[in-house]
Amino acid sequence: MKDKIGLILLAGGVGRRTQRKVPKQLLLVGGKPMLVHSLEKIEDIPQIASVVIPCADEAIEKTRYVLDAWGYDGAKYRIVEGGATRHESVSGGLSSLSGCDYVIIHEAARPFAAKADFLRLVEIEDRNATLGVPIPFTVAEVDKTGNLSGALDRSALVNVQLPQIFEYATLAAAHEKAAQAGRQYTEDASLLHDQLGVAVRIVEGSATNIKITYPSDLVIAESIYRSFVIGGADD
Prior knowledge:
Helix content is 33%, strand content 24%. By secondary structure, the protein is of the alpha/beta class.
């Protein structure tokens, strides 16, 4: 069992790829802002003592309004200005956390991560872990000309999902090393393994734990909400 856990809830979207004027993390799914779906899952987990929410400067005021309106206005929840990239937002979030032995990374654009997913990461014996699901389709490599160069063995591949949990000091060290090398990453399990050679346990995720990026994803999300959340499968 881990304690003294901080959570970085990435909420840097401004709505460009979803083609909405509202920041992605504030779009409604099942009548509720995406950001709130995630906060509801973790609010009763006592080991998570602090939550940092990096978001774009132009979205800070709207995000704060939503937090206040839904009752997440206590000292536990802090909004900070995000970086120009996801990688920079995580680095800034780490700097904003203090007194934590572990840190959970999650994305507001994944509203269907279940409370059970967070609890498994809190309770797992491994110090560093991420959700992941098998890839059910063929993945191929292409060369620089855009031609197929070979198929990958999908039995050795996973689709990495969030949330993820890491030792705070280890992740901070990996970010520092990546900064010195001028490297940026799109997720932190790969960063940790690449920069420090640290083992990261894959914990079975769920096909419904989608990341909402494009307008079509919002249609899928509403279907998931009606079929699984209202139906009681999302706990």
